[in-house]
Design goal:
This protein has a four-stranded antiparallel beta sheet with strand order 1-2-3-4, covered by helices on one side. It is an alpha+beta fold. It is globular. The protein has three helices and four strands; from the N terminus they run E-E-E-E-H-H-H. The longest helix has 12 residues. It is about 35% helix and about 25% strand.
Length: about 70
């Protein structure tokens, strides 16, 4: 599936993040995070929810989320 937002395209099938057609370097969890936020647009997603769904309960610092 492809999500288009602003000048970006997130291709979840190929696990790619593109900007203006150019591939950006992104770790898999960054792509998972962007996908999760896109799929849940229109509602507030809590840090606890992100920790549970993306990091599967591992402790993640605020700077890592930023």
């Amino acid at each position: 599936m492809q999500y288009r937002f602003d000048q970006f395209v997130l291709d979840t099938g190929q696990f790619l993040l593109l900007q203006h057609g150019q591939s950006l370097s992104a770790e898999p969890q960054v792509i998972e995070l962007i996908q999760y936020l896109l799929e849940n647009h229109g509602r507030m997603v809590s840090r606890d929810e992100l920790n549970r769904e993306i990091w599967h309960g591992r402790v993640v610092s605020d700077s890592a989320l930023s």
